[in-house]
């Protein structure tokens, strides 16, 4: 293994060990994250019942079953793209000077944070796998058909994109702390905006033009909508390739914005906190 | 050839000045006042390989800022510096593999994991050969007496044990230059001595170049021969530690123990009384008058014990800092 890979592997291994240090709290937090999906399923049930006669009602081309399937897949997408504590962690490190460990050691800060986050996600998936599987088994009837192999591969790639774009957006917000120090309001605004713009609240194909045209150009749709839409066969193979390519383009853009923010931020960094 | 070369280094900050009160808070949303703080101004010095130099100064003097500049944490406003031939703020990996920075108030170990996990990560980051790593880890844990603690989560270690682990993490890759920023801050006397003893031994053995800041003069006296004194961002003294007393203190102390239980009432005419615990007294007397004063005292009183000593370094330096900016030698210094 090359030295660079060995460092990544070691960060990954150490981060996993760290994540398991508070296994009770972590397991509880993981399980609690399933509660919103239960409320969402009941909420959509109530909406569809109020709109028409139960299972046959269609809202914007989504039946109740489609909506449950969409909500479940959005939950999976968010499990990849949400990065709890990343932005505030970077901001705290900048504010209190803990960032120094990344600057004095021969290590790349963004690379380190990336593998640290990969470790957290891996532990999360291992713990959440059984509850996820149970929920999908219970709701299996809401999925129309088993997707073909290309769609399955596309879905896997869209989840990787969800992780990368989620990481890069939140790390970029954290780096804003080089200028503003406190970013909690920014995090709040981002949480609100991404809830809507990512398709977490409503499927993005429900939105009218021109709002939907603009929102579809933004990277936020990759955080939840795109992975769900891929597995629900909303894209044919050609559209799938285009969406994934655009997502990859966003990864490149966000990566360079992160690099730029880090380089510029370090130039004005004052190493507060002793 | 010097390992550390600093030439006219300066670092200025713009610091937000907030007035008290709600109205001021509101107006601060639209218009802010900034003050330029010159943390380091025109600092120049050189340090040779294997030297252990104390960097002294009161709080806010510019010591830590200088260390931050030399370790590449921040960019200077002007001036140049090279360490091991590298410009620190370019953060070259080749440079970062050859120095270490330990800050007594910051830790780089993983809080929830045993220190051993952090050490293994350091082994990979610094590409240390496995056998060499194990040898060095054994040596350092033995010297610092923490071998039995490396498998205990860092959060469960005492402050002194944690500091020793931090030192190990900083030294595993055998840095040629070590910046120590108050390494014994908050430690009890026993831990302080352990850290001092270790640093003295290890620095000599490894011929490491060390720049140390500390408010504990015991650290400084135990470890360093040379001291650089900085105040208000400027260097006020650079030379042997022993020279500080000669240069900045024009007085010596005479300790007397009188026969009987009393101190003579007119003792103050011989010098300034700095301590009075009958029948003992401590006087401060100008250096050049010591022989004359001693002769007069011995002639006039029955004295059981007598001693002449320099003022403690701590006192001289404290006085030096209080004078703020006007660090000129005392009149009549040698």
Write structural notes for this entry.
The complex is a heterodimer of chains A (274) and B (334). Chain A is mainly alpha-helical. In chain A, 72% of the residues lie in helices and 1% in strands. Chain A has helices at 3-19, 23-32, 35-51, 64-81, 86-96, 100-104, 109-138, 149-175, 177-180, 184-197, 211-215, 225-231, 237-268; strands spanning 58-59, 62-63. Chain A has a two-stranded antiparallel sheet. The longest helix of chain A is centred in the C-terminal third of the chain and has 32 residues, at 237-268. Chain A is globular and about 65 Å long. Chain B is α/β, with parallel strands linked by helices and 334 residues long. In chain B, a hairpin with a 2-residue loop joins strand 8 (226-231) and strand 9 (234-240). Residues 326-334 of chain B have low confidence and may be disordered. The chains are: A mainly alpha (274), B alpha/beta (334). Chains A and B meet through helix 1 and helix 6 of A and strand 5 and helix 4 of B.
Describe the secondary structure blueprint for this structure:
The complex is a heterodimer of chains A (274) and B (334).
Chain A lengths: L2 H17 L3 H10 L2 H17 L6 E2 L2 E2 H18 L4 H11 L3 H5 L4 H30 L10 H27 L1 H4 L3 H14 L13 H5 L9 H7 L5 H32 L6
Antiparallel strand pairs in A: 1-2
Helix pairs in contact in A: 1-7, 2-7, 3-4, 4-7, 4-8, 4-12, 5-8, 8-12, 8-13
Chain B lengths: L3 E14 L4 H6 L5 E15 L4 E5 L6 H8 L7 E6 L9 H4 L2 E5 L11 H11 L4 H14 L15 H13 L5 E5 L7 H18 L2 E5 L3 H7 L2 E6 L2 E7 H8 L2 E8 L13 E6 L2 E7 L3 H11 L2 E8 L2 H10 L12
Keywords:
heterodimer, A: 274 residues, mainly alpha, two-stranded antiparallel ribbon, 2 strands, B: 334 residues, alpha/beta, Rossmann fold, Alpha-Beta Plaits, 2 domains, 6-stranded mixed beta sheet, globular
Give the radius of gyration of chain A. Answer: 20 Å
Instruction: Name the strands of the widest sheet of chain B in spatial order.
Output: 5-6-7-3-8-9
What is the oligomeric state here? heterodimer
The CATH architecture category of the largest domain in chain B equals: 3-Layer(aba) Sandwich
């Amino acid at each position: 293994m090359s030295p660079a890979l060995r460092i990544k592997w070691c960060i990954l291994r150490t981060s996993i060990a760290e994540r398991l240090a508070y296994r009770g709290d972590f397991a509880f937090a993981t399980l609690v994250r399933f509660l919103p999906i239960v409320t969402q399923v009941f909420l959509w049930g109530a909406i569809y019942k109020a709109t028409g006669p139960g299972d046959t009602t269609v809202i914007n081309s989504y039946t109740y079953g489609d909506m449950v399937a969409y909500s479940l897949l959005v939950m999976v997408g968010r499990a990849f793209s949400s990065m709890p504590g990343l932005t505030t962690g970077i901001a705290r490190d900048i504010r209190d000077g803990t960032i120094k460990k990344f600057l004095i050691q021969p290590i790349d800060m963004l690379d380190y944070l990336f593998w640290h986050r990969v470790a957290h996600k891996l532990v999360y998936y291992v713990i959440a796998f059984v509850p996820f599987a149970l929920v999908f088994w219970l709701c299996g009837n809401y999925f129309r058909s088993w997707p073909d192999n290309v769609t399955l591969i596309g879905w896997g790639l869209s989840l990787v994109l969800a992780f990368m774009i989620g990481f890069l957006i939140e790390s970029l917000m954290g780096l804003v702390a080089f200028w503003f120090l406190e970013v909690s309001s920014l995090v709040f605004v981002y949480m609100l905006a991404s809830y809507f713009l990512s398709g977490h609240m409503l499927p993005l194909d429900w939105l009218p033009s021109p709002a939907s045209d603009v929102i579809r150009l933004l990277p936020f749709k990759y955080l939840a909508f795109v992975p769900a839409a891929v597995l629900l066969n909303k894209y044919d193979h050609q559209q799938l390739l285009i969406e994934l390519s655009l997502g990859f383009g966003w990864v490149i853009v966000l990566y360079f914005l992160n690099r730029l923010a880090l380089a510029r931020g370090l130039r004005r960094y004052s190493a507060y906190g002793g | 050839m010097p390992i550390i070369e600093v030439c006219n280094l300066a670092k200025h900050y713009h610091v937000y000045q907030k007035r008290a009160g709600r109205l001021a808070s509101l107006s601060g949303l639209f218009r802010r006042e900034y003050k330029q703080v010159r943390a380091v101004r025109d600092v120049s010095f050189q340090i040779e390989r294997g030297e252990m130099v104390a960097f002294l100064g009161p709080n806010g003097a510019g010591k830590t800022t200088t260390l931050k500049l030399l370790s590449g944490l921040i960019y200077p406003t002007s001036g140049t510096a090279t360490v091991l031939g590298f410009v620190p703020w370019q953060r070259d990996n080749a440079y970062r593999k050859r120095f270490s920075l330990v800050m007594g108030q910051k830790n780089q170990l993983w809080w929830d994991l045993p220190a051993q996990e952090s050490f293994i990560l350091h082994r990979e980051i610094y590409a240390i050969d496995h056998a060499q790593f194990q040898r060095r880890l054994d040596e350092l844990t033995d010297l610092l007496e923490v071998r039995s603690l490396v498998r205990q989560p860092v959060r469960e270690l005492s402050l002194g044990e944690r500091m020793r682990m931090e030192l190990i993490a900083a030294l595993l890759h055998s840095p040629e230059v070590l910046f120590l920023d108050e390494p014994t801050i908050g430690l009890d006397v026993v831990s302080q001595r352990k850290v001092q003893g270790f640093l003295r031994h290890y620095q000599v053995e490894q011929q490491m170049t060390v720049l140390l800041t500390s408010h504990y003069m015991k650290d400084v006296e135990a470890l360093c021969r040379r001291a650089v004194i900085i105040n208000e961002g400027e260097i006020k003294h650079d030379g042997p530690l022993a020279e500080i007393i000669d240069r900045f203190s024009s007085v010596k102390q005479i300790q007397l123990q009188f026969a009987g239980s009393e101190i003579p009432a007119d003792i103050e005419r011989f010098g300034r009384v700095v301590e009075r615990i009958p029948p003992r007294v401590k006087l401060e007397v100008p250096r050049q008058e010591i022989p004359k004063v001693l002769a007069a005292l011995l002639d006039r009183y029955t004295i059981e014990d007598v001693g002449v000593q320099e003022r403690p370094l701590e006192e001289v330096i404290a006085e030096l800092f209080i004078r703020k900016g006007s660090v000129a030698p005392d009149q009549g210094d040698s």
